[in-house]
Write a structure and sequence with these properties.
The protein is mainly β. The chain contains 1 helix and 9 strands, in the order αβββββββββ. It has a single domain, classed as Immunoglobulins (Immunoglobulin-like), CATH 2.60.40. Helix content is 14%, strand content 49%. The strands form 2 sheets. The protein has a 5-stranded antiparallel sheet with strand order 1-2-3-7-6, with helices on one face. The two termini are 26 Å apart. The chain binds copper (II) ion. Copper (II) ion binds next to loops. Copper (II) ion (CU) binds next to loops.
Length: 142
């Protein structure tokens, strides 16, 4: 567990270094964006991963909260539930993610295990120094 966290942090540091080196947009998210959306309190929540794709099964991703200038903002505790409504005979699915903080406040390393590909709702909530807020991002898992 500790080793995995270290690897995540190294990956994030590497992503920052790459972003600086290429003079890129200043996007704080590690890797490529999966989806981003408004999260209240003038914040944007961004899900990202190495290849920018959410897929069925176990995976790592990054959840970043940024202000209007793109700077990461510490939002305290975060939660994310991948929700899929019931479809026909298929029961509702809820696949929560777990998070660890990283060296950068406002950037969270997430893990989840999605039961299936298809249309998910990423139900994000946070509570802390930036206030309380929610984001609901539709994401297609491959
Ligand atoms: Cu389903």
């Amino acid at each position: 567990m500790k080793k995995l966290t270290m690897i995540s942090m190294l990956a994030i540091v590497a992503a920052f270094a790459a972003a600086c080196g290429s003079g890129a947009s200043g996007d704080a998210a590690a890797g490529k964006t999966i989806k981003a959306g408004p999260a209240g309190n003038n914040l944007t929540a961004t899900l990202s991963s190495k290849d920018g794709v959410l897929r069925k099964g176990k995976q790592d991703f990054t959840l970043t909260f940024t202000d209007a200038s793109g700077k990461p903002v510490n939002v305290g505790s975060v939660s994310l539930n991948f929700h899929m409504p019931a479809m026909g005979t298929m029961a509702v699915m809820n696949n929560p993610a777990t998070f660890t903080t990283t060296a950068t406040p406002g950037v969270y390393a997430g893990k989840t295990d999605l039961e299936m590909s298809g249309e998910w709702q990423a139900q994000i909530a946070y509570e802390g120094p930036a206030g309380t807020g929610k984001a609901n991002l539709p994401i297609t898992a491959q």
